[in-house]
Amino acid sequence: MRKPMVAGNWKMNNSLYETRDLIRKMLPDLQEIRDVDVVICPPFVGLGVAVRETAETAIKLGAQNLHWQDKGAFTGETSPLMLKDLCEYVIIGHSERRAMFGETDESVNLKVKAALAHNLQPIVCVGETLEENQTNQTETVVSRMVREGLKDLTSDQAEKLIVAYEPVWAIGTGLAATPEGANAVHKEVIRPILREMFGKKVGEEMRILYGGSVTPANAKELFDQSDIDGGLVGGASLKADSFAAIVQAAR
């Protein structure tokens, strides 16, 4: 059995005080949960507050991005050395990073390797646009992203990472893939590639999350699918009651 995971991507939201208050609202429902890996990913500036507020709870922390270099003249960037004492996970290759900031499969691959080198667990995002979906390119696009993003990793390294399938057309739009449709991409596209690249055992054990307008209303039906191992949640993770309901659905 793959342990479910629900990760909340807060994106560019919440001041330090809002970060503190939101976590405090979440704690009564989430702090003792052990059968789901619960991860919150605030903006970088909020991670210090999040560390203090989640101390001695089961809630884990993640960052939203990192640079592949340890240090240097990269104004505005955050290195794995800066993150490794603050969090366990890091989101890499989110569609917003790809579309707005020019990230490529090659830069995703560099970031994945940098994260793993510093014992950060990558949550690697893949997914097709609406146009690609409507022209039957989902398998081609997702396959390329998985193969190129995870290129040259060992099976031991692959054990430490998570893949998140996020159809771009479903992110922040209110349009979610059908549970059966999302599961088909997980089961028939992504997981066979993971088995091929890293061996049957590792490929079966790696978690694949679904992201894209996950809500309390659709979470259980999504998570009931055979190869959907949890969710990477956007807007609903900014509301304590909604996020808690999604975590409960994953249980």
Average pLDDT over all residues: 96
Distance between the termini: 12 Å
Strand order of the largest sheet: 7-6-5-4-3-2-1-8
CATH superfamily: Aldolase class I
Q: pLDDT under 50 segments (min length 5)? A: none
User: What's the level 1 CATH class?
Assistant: Alpha Beta
Proportion of strand residues:
5-15%
Count of domains? 1
DSSP E strands, number: 8
The main sheet comes to: 8 strands, parallel
Predict the CATH topology: TIM Barrel
Rg, Cα atoms, Å: 17 Å
> Treating each run of at least 4 consecutive H or I residues as one helix, how many helices?
12
Shape: globular
Q: What pattern of helices and strands is seen along the backbone?
A: EHEHEHEHHEHHHEHHEHEH
Question: Architecture, according to CATH?
Answer: Alpha-Beta Barrel
Please state the structural category: alpha/beta
Helix content: 40-55%
How would you characterize this protein structure?
With about 250 residues, this protein is of the alpha/beta class. The protein has a single domain (about 5-250), classed as Aldolase class I (TIM Barrel). It has helices spanning about 15-30, 45-55, 80-85, 95-100, 105-115, 130-135, 140-150, 155-160, 180-200, 200-205, 220-225, 240-250, and strands at about 5-10, 35-40, 60-65, 90, 120-125, 160-165, 210, 230-235. Strands 7-6-5-4-3-2-1-8 form an eight-stranded parallel sheet. Helix 2 (about 45-55) links the parallel strand 2 and strand 3 (about 60-65). It is globular, with a radius of gyration of 17 Å. The model has no long low-confidence stretch (mean pLDDT about 95).
